[in-house]
């Protein structure tokens, strides 16, 4: 048991945690603790000499913690919102820990995923920091969902069976945390409470934390007479948006440290993360971040040390619909998330940068030829306000009579869910099979249109034309301007921003590991073939996912072409085979990328392996070339293949040998069993053909790797 001095010190701490700006007198301490005033005065004198407390110059003299000891929120500062939405919860937690003798039992109440378990861990850490429990004292935690239906066994595990002590005895000098007590039967809860009462006077119990779902009202009612410290944690929707942004920042920086990569995302993705409904509160937020980072890591793992860029498609569809809440929280979100910016998360914090805008290009416009023999795209204007979109479409139709212009006017008071369904029905009704060009005025519509395109399979391109927003800005400017020239400059700057050409992108693609795609990317960069375009390597065999990724890129960029081992024939994007790229002289690469036309030539495999040799660090490139050209000749003798397929196959196997021999990493193929079973004869032949390569480089191709090779050879697209 602690002596008078430590009890008095803990009581001063308890008082300071609740009344930070007011001290407490000697008489108040003596009365509260039932001690002699002289004993309290002596103990306070010792604490003063140790500089643990200080006294006021007023009368009566008031005692409080010194600055060195006052900031004992240490552990609680780890909680996002400790001085905001969790401020009262933290005060109660500190008071419960500091309460004389052994603290108070605590009941943590909140929704699943709201952070009850983390709060218990922080409270334990705070108790250790403040010397309330020893550093080596046990912190015994159990999830009550894990107990079976046998009450006798559960009681024995918790309280002991007379022969062996239970968890209560195990935690004797520390803390016992029973998580989700609503899953204990009524009988077990009664037995537990009876034990609390019987042991209370003897002070034989450890400090006890319980947690319960806020919907289990009967359980809370049963416990509240015996557990005096009830700490309620707010739901995510009850917490302010700045705290949600801090939570996102915390999780993203944690994943950046875990992967040792910088994690990047666009402001539109961050907006969705700020607003999407989280079924399991903070747990859902954390899970979505980790899942998206996992998807990005699998996609980009070959790019050692490169950035992990999170696309909206890396998250579950529920995240994408966060934009439906944008209008309701527009002002708060816009104050926290800067539009059209890129966010970089890394160890040490967050950096926000504007994406580079390439200079505008002049284009020659010629009169188009009207096509009547095939389905053609249509134009859709989507604007907020009454009659704006309709006026534009009617005017165009009156002049041209083409019958391919449509409009949707959206009332400002209409709910986003209704707008989403209205646009979905409209797109399905007007699409003639060749796609829709949508012209919109507000950012939220861009995300809606993109999501509908992914959901329905409609080919859709969206262009921002914020006429209403510009008009409102110019109107506000005119109201305060001292002359028309100032308003004119404002209008010119706004319209000038629209003239910027979108950035250019070249996609290198393979269906299995990212090795071939990354090698093609490095080849283009090494030979400076695309100085005005960004090269993005993708490894995707799922056609729907590939389409979604490409659409996402096309929101802010023009895809010049796709380079790969097979033609995905998707979204009317020009395709160049890896063989075409490797066959052309390097000085003519820019021309090939610009025109996508060049006379067919034989691939220079010597040059290809020389290029691979610059990047494959674990194998001798000369021995690898000899082995793989023999392998390709054997395969081609049994399974004739095009030059494009042969080039892609050789590049893929080269990257696979380097990866497996050097790091022992195999790329999983989710359709492995199906492919091996369907192409069992091919699998058996390839096993025989690759055996010399395996022996030469002391490695083994797994069945996943064999399925990847078969996919390239047989041109399998899922």
UniProtKB/TrEMBL annotation:
Signal peptide: none annotated. GO terms for biological process: phosphoenolpyruvate-dependent sugar phosphotransferase system; regulation of DNA-templated transcription. Residues 615-718 form the PRD domain. GO terms for molecular function: ATP binding. Residues 79-294 form the Sigma-54 factor interaction domain. It comes from the Bacteria. PROSITE patterns: PRD_2 (PS51372), SIGMA54_INTERACT_4 (PS50045). Pfam families: PRD, Sigma54_activat. Keywords: ATP-binding, Nucleotide-binding. This is PRD domain/Sigma-54 interaction domain containing transcriptional regulator.
């Amino acid at each position: 048991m602690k002596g008078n001095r430590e009890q008095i010190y803990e009581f001063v701490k308890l008082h300071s945690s609740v009344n930070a700006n007011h001290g407490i007198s000697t008489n108040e301490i003596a009365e509260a603790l039932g001690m002699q005033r002289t004993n309290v005065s002596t103990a306070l004198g010792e604490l003063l000499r140790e500089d643990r407390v200080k006294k006021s110059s007023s009368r009566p003299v008031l005692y409080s913690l010194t600055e060195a000891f006052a900031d004992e929120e240490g552990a609680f500062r780890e909680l996002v919102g400790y001085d905001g939405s969790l401020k009262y919860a933290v005060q109660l937690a500190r008071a419960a820990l500091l309460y004389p003798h052994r603290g108070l039992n605590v009941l943590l109440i909140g929704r699943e995923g709201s952070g009850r378990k983390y709060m218990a861990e922080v409270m334990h850490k705070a108790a250790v920091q403040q010397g309330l429990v020893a550093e080596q004292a046990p912190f015994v935690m159990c999830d009550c969902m894990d107990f079976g239906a046998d009450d006798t066994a559960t009681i024995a595990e918790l309280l002991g069976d007379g022969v062996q002590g239970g968890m209560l005895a195990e935690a004797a000098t520390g803390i016992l945390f029973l998580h989700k007590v609503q899953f204990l039967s009524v009988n077990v809860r009664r037995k537990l409470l009876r034990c609390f009462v019987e042991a209370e006077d003897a002070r034989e119990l450890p400090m006890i934390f319980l947690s319960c779902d806020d919907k289990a009202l009967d359980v809370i009612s049963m416990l509240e007479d015996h557990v005096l410290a009830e700490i309620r944690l707010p739901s995510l929707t009850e917490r302010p948006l700045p705290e949600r942004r801090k939570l996102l920042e915390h999780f993203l920086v944690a994943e950046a440290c875990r992967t040792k990569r910088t994690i990047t995302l666009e402001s539109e993705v961050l907006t969705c993360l700020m607003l999407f409904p989280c079924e399991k509160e903070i747990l859902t937020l954390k899970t979505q971040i980790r899942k998206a980072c996992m998807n990005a890591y699998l996609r980009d793992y070959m790019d050692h040390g490169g950035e992990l860029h999170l696309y909206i498609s890396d998250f579950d569809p529920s995240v994408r619909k966060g934009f439906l809440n944008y209008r309701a929280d527009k002002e708060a979100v816009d104050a926290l998330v800067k539009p059209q910016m890129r966010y970089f998360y890394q160890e040490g914090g967050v950096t926000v940068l504007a994406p580079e805008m390439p200079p505008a290009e002049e284009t020659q416009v010629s009169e188009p030829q009207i096509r009547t023999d095939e389905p053609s795209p249509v134009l859709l204007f989507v604007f907020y306000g009454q009659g704006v979109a309709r006026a534009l479409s009617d005017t165009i139709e009156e002049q041209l009579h083409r019958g391919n212009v449509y409009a949707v006017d959206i009332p400002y008071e209409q709910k986003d869910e209704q707008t989403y369904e209205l646009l979905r029905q409209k797109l399905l009704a007007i699409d003639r099979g060749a796609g829709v060009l949508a012209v919109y005025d507000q950012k939220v519509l861009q995300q809606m249109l993109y999501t509908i395109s992914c959901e329905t399979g409609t080919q859709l391109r969206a262009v921002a034309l914020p006429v209403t927003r510009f008009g409102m800005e110019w109107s506000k400017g005119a109201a305060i301007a001292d002359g028309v020239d100032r308003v004119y400059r404002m209008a010119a700057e706004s319209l000038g921003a629209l003239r910027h050409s979108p950035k250019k992108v070249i996609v290198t693609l393979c269906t299995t590991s990212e090795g071939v795609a990354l090698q093609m990317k490095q080849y283009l960069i090494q030979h400076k073939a695309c100085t005005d375009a960004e090269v993005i390597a993708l490894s995707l065999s799922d056609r729907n996912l590939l389409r979604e990724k490409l659409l996402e890129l096309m929101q802010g960029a023009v895809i010049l072409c796709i380079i790969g081992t097979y033609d995905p024939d998707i979204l009317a994007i020009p395709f160049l085979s890896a063989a075409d790229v490797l066959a052309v002289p390097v000085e003519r690469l820019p021309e090939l990328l610009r025109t996508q036309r060049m006379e067919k030539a034989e691939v220079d495999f010597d040059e290809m392996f020389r290029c691979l040799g610059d990047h494959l660090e674990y194998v001798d490139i000369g021995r690898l070339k000899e082995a793989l050209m023999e392998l390709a000749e054997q395969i081609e003798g049994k399974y004739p293949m095009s030059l494009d397929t042969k080039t892609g196959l050789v590049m893929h196997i080269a990257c696979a040998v380097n990866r497996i021999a050097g790091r022992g990493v195999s790329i999983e193929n989710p359709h492995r069993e199906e492919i091996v079973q369907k192409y069992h004869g091919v699998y058996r032949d390839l096993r025989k053909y690759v055996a010399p390569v395996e022996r030469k480089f002391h490695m083994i191709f797994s069945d996943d790797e064999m399925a990847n090779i078969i996919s390239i050879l047989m041109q399998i697209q899922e």
